[in-house]
Amino acid sequence: MSTEQIEQNDQTENAHADIEAGTESQGSSTDVEQLRNERDQLALQLTQAQDRLARLQAEFDNTRKREAKERQDVRDYAIQSAVEPFLGVLDNFSLALKADGDVDQLRTGVQLIVKQMDDALRGLNVQPVESVGSQFDPRIHEALGSIETLEHPDHQVLEEIRRGYKLRDKLLRPALVRIASNSAQKSE
Questions:
Q1: Assigned architecture for domain 127-188
Q2: What phi and psi, each to the nearest 5 degrees, are found at residue 19?
């Protein structure tokens, strides 16, 4: 406790003692009244500060909940936008499974479905990785093996086993390829 607080407590105790004893003077009466007013003002300020704090906490909580809901809405919209083009592809696969046709008709139907799938991916800015005929690039290709040849330059992609894809400039998955191994170029 500071000296001022001790003095203030002493004054308050003295004022109360004077009131109880009935020997209250005019000067101490105004001091007690002033202290009561000050106490009441401080109590009011404390109540107002507590109310402000409670309101700010509620506002913060509401903002946090609103932000979480908006984030979930954005995720749902992104998923909807990504899935929607593939629903038609799925429908066509179901129709192909129910179809009674010969092998050529089924092959033609599957080719149309693959084209529809490529179009859906292109609509989402997903592009296939260039493979066959290009030079092997370990950033976008994954070599599964090599083929001995003298007809093609060394490390040229000869066969694509699984297509790779990019989303704009970001690689989604590398292409699985077989590359040329030209022993004549290696010895040079």
A1: Roll (2.30)
A2: -65, -45
Q: Where are the domains of the chain?
A: 3-79, 127-188
Q: What is the pTM of this model?
A: 0.59
Strand partners, 166: 127, 171
- Give residue 186's identity as a one-letter amino acid code: K
Smallest Cα–Cα separation from 146: which of 98, 186, 187?
A: 186
| pLDDT computed for residue 24 by the predictor | 46
For 36-84, write each residue's pLDDT tens digit.
Answer: 999 999 999 999 999 999 999 999 999 999 999 999 999 999 989 889 9
Instruction: Show the 3-state SS of the chain.
Output: CCHHHHHHHHHHHHHHHHHHHCCCCHHHHHHHHHHHHHHHHHHHHHHHHHHHHHHHHHHHHHHHHHHHHHHHHHHHHHHHHHHHHHHHHHHHHHHHHHCCCCHHHHHHHHHHHHHHHHHHHHHCCEEECCCCCCECCCCCEEEEEEEECCCCCCCEEEEEEECCEEECCEEEECEEEEEEECHHHHHC
- Phi/psi for 125 (5° steps) reads 65, 30
Question: What is the Cα gyration radius of the chain?
Answer: 41
